[in-house]
Design goal:
The complex is a heterodimer of chains A (653) and B (303). Chain A is of the alpha/beta class. Chain A folds into five domains: 5-134, Rossmann fold (3-Layer(aba) Sandwich), CATH 3.40.50; 144-236 and 319-334 and 501-568, 3-Layer(bba) Sandwich (FAD/NAD(P)-binding domain), CATH 3.50.50; 250-307, no CATH class; 336-499, 3-Layer(bba) Sandwich (FAD/NAD(P)-binding domain); 576-636, Alpha-Beta Plaits (2-Layer Sandwich). Chain B is 49% helix and 10% strand. Chain B has helices at 9-12, 16-28, 57-69, 78-93, 95-111, 132-140, 142-148, 170-173, 183-190, 209-212, 214-230, 241-249, 251-257, 269-277, 281-284, 294-299, and strands at residues 2-6, 32-35, 72-75, 128-131, 157-160, 194-195, 235-238, 266-268. A four-stranded parallel beta sheet of chain B has the order 2-1-3-4, sandwiched between helices. A four-stranded parallel beta sheet of chain B has the order 6-5-7-8, sandwiched between helices. The relative contact order of chain B is 0.14. The mean pLDDT of chain B is 93. Classes of the chains: A alpha/beta (653), B alpha/beta (303). The interface between A and B is small, with 10 and 8 residues.
């Protein structure tokens, strides 16, 4: 069919017309092969401008449209919509950018700019002549979401989606939901009790009719694509039938095997059959086979089984794989602390009285191992001098992590304050590089610690910590006085860097979503798409994406949830059709495309001996097209032939 | 087994006791330290300038000499080890500097009219620079060493002092954890010593500042010595002639600075190794120590 292209040159007031001779451009294009109509107008994006395009399409029987105007990021959608209204396929409406790419950068060079604008439009005519009519790709949508990780971020995201009316599956690797927030004592800057604000949400998750909660479970495998992911979830053997168990706790009382409690950060022991903490959700125990006498000594023990009033203990239980289908996935895998053993200069892991910030949290917690009292781990005495160190492993590109962990300045300020509230005559020191208090009420909180609670802030780093005469000697420097500082402390708390959860990297690989070089999940755009992954259908929430405090994590979780609700609002998911397609006739089956595709969209069809692009997954990045040795892979509406003709037009003469 | 050996200037002059004891111990362990037929000063300090190869040439020459007779080079002095290891790394990884340094090597060889014996292949960092402790661990093996110990050193409280140059910079030296190293302790445990873990084992002894600012250097070494004494060490053991000098000889001044200062002998680890292997005292040579270790060793029935 003969192509009849219409060219519409916009003045953009004087933005374009002030430099480019638009009349001449329109006239020049009228003579160009394939162009059936050409005109110019002051504001093409205005209603009269759009009507001019629509009328011309009908009157001149146009099959393609080129609007020579501003960048396609501004009005491509506008003109495609107008084209469609008048009967032209939206993918046969193109923008020639003669503003940002021409008039704005060539002011005062009227002649040359006019020539360049003409060429830019001719280039697009060459493309438009071969543009195919395309339709967005419709993908069926499963209106059910998966949330991986049930700390505060995962909990918030799950509740928001469920409250929007969609089903949610929550998968948590630990026996209870709650994450790190459940470990915290009080939260800055309001000193709310963390558990008091957290536990109602935890209970809500467990009781919500739209939420299926799977604790002590991990993601084994994910396949499929946005709208229809197939997820294999490994329900780890708990050796307790958690449906039968009534949570009486008798087994935990009688169990003879002990091991350090993860929840209490090793400051207390837990039993081999355990719930991590008394308010656990679900409040039903699991057996940790690695520390259980029954498993370690070939069936000698089994007290829990004998004592259980409802016969819930089952040593024969095996891991179970459960398959689920979901339309979207939120990853909220959270963070860990940088290992204390890596801080050799501070004797991390070597000295008992050099502890992590989470250990100190547990100590401050009323339900913690010391009942909320601050006590030295080495001798159980109340410490009179406590030193808090910020930036342990953060902001240290030479040896540790180069980034700022963001929350340490604030939680160490809280620690120092809470310590002073408990030990009135004690002295708290905070060594800092900068006290970063960017948050609502944060600066005031810091000022309060320094002024009302007499926390002594020392600006400088600590070089060495060692034990001497029962004290923890802290060698540092006060850079404001230029003097060396030596403190004989009783307890040192390290504000260790925030790093992604250990398991997150492996999970990210399984999900095929990007991470940054430190393992934090990568967002699609650092400013404008902060809660989405580059891979469609995956959303990010909380500290898995970068260090965050609670309000930020909650905000991001709600953001991710609303993106999911957005996605679920349609019956089908529509994707851009500008993607790769492989020509079966010429494909040699070399599988190069399969190996280069970053999204696993290219697959090899054994029976046909050729590769195929899965429409629902391909992002149109072009990697396979560049790699294909036979030129069988082509981008729709950006084929080699189109590119060749475009380049020829641009270089002509 | 023969292994190329670079003693360095100090071991030929001030620290002969270190050199002699090391050679004797190696011999007892079945290793012949083959001194490089020609060698020069290592350069003493690894240069921090990045745009010149002149400053690493001394080290490069010695490494190239070593490459003619073997694939390893053992050294003892912490400074020599630091300079040679880091220089070798440059020759291995920095292609531009490698090429320039090799141009100098060729000019050298031509000038000495040794072209015949010289293979003209470039030096590419192929020699493995080993500290004597690494040789004991990786070539001899601590298990093998334990079998050869004749006089276990049980009852002797030994404070192993690392200093700085063995350990830093971590990424270039790859010797041990610079903050909490353990290899020295592992060696001493093999000899049966009671190990004194003291926090100043990786602090600086004052180094070359002894020439420039004696007050400062003595302050540094006093910090190290006092820390070991406080933890009831009988002797401090070191791997470096300069550390030995600062920690041992400068106790002369510490006595004047600190009332009731108790002196403590500072010896080379090879001297202790010699005792354990049952080597003649004459080859161990305690005569050059400022604080004589013999009384405490005799008290522990080790002499």
């Amino acid at each position: 069919m003969e192509r009849r292209i219409g060219v519409f040159v916009c003045h953009c007031g004087s933005n374009i017309a002030g430099v480019v001779d638009v009349k001449r451009v329109a006239e020049e294009l009228r003579k160009y092969p394939g162009v059936a109509y050409s005109t110019d107008y002051t504001y093409m994006c205005s209603d009269p401008g759009q009507n001019l395009v629509k009328d011309a399409i009908k009157k001149h029987d146009l099959t393609g449209v080129i609007v020579a105007a501003c960048s396609p990021t501004l009005h491509e959608t506008t003109f495609r919509r107008a084209g469609r209204a008048a009967g032209v396929n939206p993918y046969q409406v193109e923008i020639a950018n003669i503003r940002e790419h021409c008039s704005w950068v060539h002011q005062g060079e009227k002649e040359a700019a006019t020539e360049k604008a003409t060429r830019i439009i001719k280039t697009m005519v060459e493309k438009a002549v071969l543009d195919e009519a395309l339709d967005p790709i419709a993908v069926p949508m499963t209106h059910r979401a998966l949330v991986v990780g049930a700390g505060i971020s995962g909990i918030q995201a799950a509740l928001d989606i469920a409250n929007a009316g969609y089903e949610v599956i929550v998968v948590e690797k630990d026996p209870s939901i709650g994450g790190h927030m459940a470990q915290l004592s009080e939260t800055f800057p309001t000193l709310d009790c963390s558990q008091c604000i957290m536990t109602p949400k935890m209970v809500e998750v467990s009781q919500h009719p739209k939420i299926k909660l799977m604790t002590y479970s991990e993601i084994d495998d994910v396949s499929g694509y946005v709208g229809s992911f197939k997820v294999k979830i490994r329900k780890k053997a708990a050796y307790v039938d958690r449906d039968t168990c009534n949570g009486c706790g008798l087994c935990m009382e009688k169990c003879p095997a002990k091991t350090p409690s993860e929840f209490d950060e090793g400051l207390a022991d837990r039993k081999a059959i355990y719930t991590p903490f008394p308010q656990a959700v679900p409040n039903k125990p699991v057996i940790d086979a690695e520390h259980c006498t029954y498993f370690l000594k070939d069936g000698k023990c089994g007290i829990c089984q004998k004592i259980c009033p409802v016969d819930a203990v089952d040593f024969e239980q095996k891991d179970e794989i459960i398959e689920e289908e979901v339309g979207a996935i939120i990853v909220a895998t959270g963070y860990d602390l940088y290992p204390i053993e890596n801080m050799g200069e501070y004797g991390g892991g070597k000295y008992e009285d050099v502890i992590t910030s989470l250990q100190f949290e547990r100590m401050l917690s009323a339900s913690g191992p010391t009942g909320g009292e601050v006590l030295r781990p080495s001798d159980g005495e109340v410490p009179n001098e406590v030193v808090f160190l910020t930036c342990c492993g953060s902001r240290d590109p030479e040896l540790h992590m180069p980034y700022c962990s963001k929350v340490c300045c604030m939680y160490l300020t809280k620690h120092a304050m809470l310590y002073k509230h408990k030990v009135h005559d004690g002295q708290a020191y905070v060594f800092y590089m900068d006290v970063r208090t960017a948050g609502k009420g944060y600066e005031e909180f810091y000022t309060r610690a320094a002024e009302e609670d007499d926390v002594l802030y020392v600006r400088g780093k600590v070089s060495k910590i060692f034990e001497e005469d029962g004290k923890v000697m802290v060698w540092g420097v006060d850079t404001l006085t230029g003097k060396k500082v030596e403190i004989a402390a009783d307890l040192v708390v390290l504000g260790l860097a925030t790093v992604p959860n250990v398991a997150a990297k492996e999970l990210a690989n399984k999900l095929k979503i990007h991470t940054d070089e430190w393992g934090f999940l990568a967002e699609a755009h650092p400013k404008l798409r902060p809660v989405e992954s580059l891979s469609p259908g995956f959303y990010l929430a909380g500290a898995a994406q970068g260090p965050k405090d609670i309000p930020e994590a909650v905000a991001q979780a709600s953001g991710a949830a609303s993106k999911v609700a957005d996605l679920f609002a349609e019956e089908e998911y529509h994707r851009e059709p500008i993607i790769a397609v492989i020509n079966d006739d010429t494909c040699a089956g070399c599988k190069v495309c399969v190996s280069v595709c970053p999204y696993d969209a290219a697959e090899f069809i054994e029976e046909d001996g050729v590769a195929r692009i899965q429409e629902a997954i391909c992002e149109g990045c072009g990697a396979c097209i560049a790699a294909c040795p036979s030129g069988s892979a082509q981008q729709r509406n950006l084929t080699d032939e189109q590119l060749y003709r475009m380049v020829s037009a641009a270089l002509e003469g | 087994m023969k292994i190329p050996y670079y003693p360095g200037c100090t071991l030929h002059e001030r620290a002969r006791d270190f050199d002699v004891s090391a050679r004797e111990c190696a011999k007892a362990l079945g290793v012949e330290l083959e001194e490089l037929p020609i060698w020069t000063c290592c350069g003493a300090v690894f240069p921090l300038v990045t745009d010149s190869v002149m400053d690493i040439l001394a080290g490069v020459r010695n490494l190239e000499y070593a490459s003619r007779i073997g694939d390893k080079l053992v050294t003892l002095c912490s400074f020599c080890y630091n300079v040679l290891k880091r220089t070798n790394r440059v020759m291995r990884d920095d292609l531009e500097k490698r090429e320039k340094a090799n141009l100098f090597l060729r000019a050298d060889t031509a000038a000495r009219e040794e072209v015949e014996s010289y293979t003209k292949t470039d030096y590419t960092g192929q020699v493995e620079v080993l500290h004597y402790i690494e040789m004991l661990r990786d070539v001899v093996g601590f298990d093998e060493l334990r079998k050869k110990v004749e006089n276990g050193l049980g009852g002797l409280n030994v404070a192993p002092y690392y200093g700085c140059m063995l350990l830093r910079p971590k990424k270039e030296m790859e010797f041990d954890d610079p903050e909490q190293p353990t290899v020295f302790e592992d060696l001493l445990a093999t000899l049966g010593c009671d190990i004194v873990d003291f926090p100043m084992k990786t602090e600086c002894c004052g180094g070359f500042q002894i020439v420039n600012d004696e007050e400062l250097a003595v302050m540094c070494s006093q910090n190290v010595v006092s820390s070991a004494i406080k933890r009831n060490a009988d002797v401090i053991v070191t791997t470096c002639p300069l550390c030995r000098y600062n920690l041992d000889k400068k106790q002369e001044e510490m006595i004047e600075r600190v009332r009731g200062f108790r002196r403590i002998p500072v010896i080379y680890f090879t001297q202790l190794l010699g005792l354990a292997l049952g080597i003649d005292e004459e080859h161990i040579d305690f005569s050059d120590n400022y604080v004589d270790p013999r009384p405490v060793l005799a008290e522990k029935s080790l002499l």
